[in-house]
Amino acid sequence: MRTSDTTVLRARLTGPAVSGAVLSAVRVVVGFLFLCHGLQGFGLFGGVDTMGTAVPVGSWPGWYAGVIEVVGGALVLLGLLTRPAALVCSGAMAYAYFTVHQPMAALPLQNMGEQAVLFCWVFLLIAALGPGPFALSALRRR
Fold it and tell me: Over the stretch 24-67, which tens digit does the pLDDT of each residue have?
């Protein structure tokens, strides 16, 4: 490949269309995983104990976290109200990390908080960058 061919290829792979598609794909995957995580609290996918047990209705903070995870995950997945939903989801995961995981040990690898930390930061990134071009909110703007 010649240098000019490489430059053209690099421009196509790093252009706004590709980065927008990647942002949308990450949003969909993260939203889906968070939705599934929330549904576990309601007894699906093995529940909270792999035996199908649900978090008791109205219990703090588990039941409310499940509601935030299901609603927020669905909104982020679909690309509706993405920025505020992602910000709420990020905050919920920060709260989960500092109240559940961090008291057990200092580092996420020691306190089983990697998932909460990753969700927190990825949702913060989605809140900052927006939903990307492939979102239901993009259809509403037309």
Answer: 999 999 999 999 999 999 988 888 888 888 888 988 988 999 99
**Tokens 């590709």 -> residue:** 18
Write out the two tokens for 1: 């490949």
Give the predicted TM-score (pTM) of the model: 0.85
Phi-psi region of 80 (alpha: psi -120 to 50; beta: other; left: phi over 0): beta
What residues have CB less than 8 Å from 60, skipping those under 6 apart?
none
For 137, phi then psi, to 5°, come to -65, -30
- In the DSSP assignment, the letter for residue 131 is S
Instruction: Give the bridge partners for 16, in sequence order.
Output: none
Q: What is the pLDDT of residue 17?
A: 72
